[in-house]
Design a protein that fits this description.
Blueprint lengths: L4 E5 L8 E6 L2 E8 L2 E6 L13 E3 L2 E3 L6 E3 L5 E2 L9 E7 L2 E6 L1
Antiparallel strand pairs: 1-10, 2-3, 3-4, 4-9, 5-6, 6-7, 7-8, 9-10
The structure holds FE2/S2 (inorganic) cluster.
């Protein structure tokens, strides 16, 4: 996914909300933080819980599974054991849709 791929209507990710979408075989977590969109791998690398079921606070996502706190800017998770980073995606809005591209 080196080019931007259309993911979903932007209206489905209002401010303060997250949504998991499947794009080109990847599960991507889309988050809207005060109108700015972020994209990160959606399945927690701890035990694969869907991060859209967690809690969004600023650019941190707390996994509903066991509480890992993920940083949408870096893809790094804070937990009491090392975890693989989540992949990051660029997100752009165009014509009412969100497009994602893997970094
Ligand atoms: S599955 Fe996310 S913290 Fe365990």
């Amino acid at each position: 996914m080196s080019e931007f791929v259309r993911a979903v209507e932007a209206s489905r990710v209002p401010p303060g909300q997250m949504l998991t979408v499947e794009v080109a075989g990847d599960s991507v977590l889309l988050a809207n933080v005060d109108g700015k969109y972020y994209g990160m791998g959606a399945m927690c690398s701890h035990e694969q819980w869907d991060l859209s079921e967690g809690m969004l606070e600023d650019t941190s996502v707390t996994c509903a599974g066991h509480g890992t706190v993920w940083d949408l800017k870096t893809g790094k998770g804070a937990f009491d054991e090392p975890l693989d980073d989540e992949p990051l995606y660029d997100v752009k809005e165009e014509g009412g849709f969100l497009y994602v591209r893997k970094r």
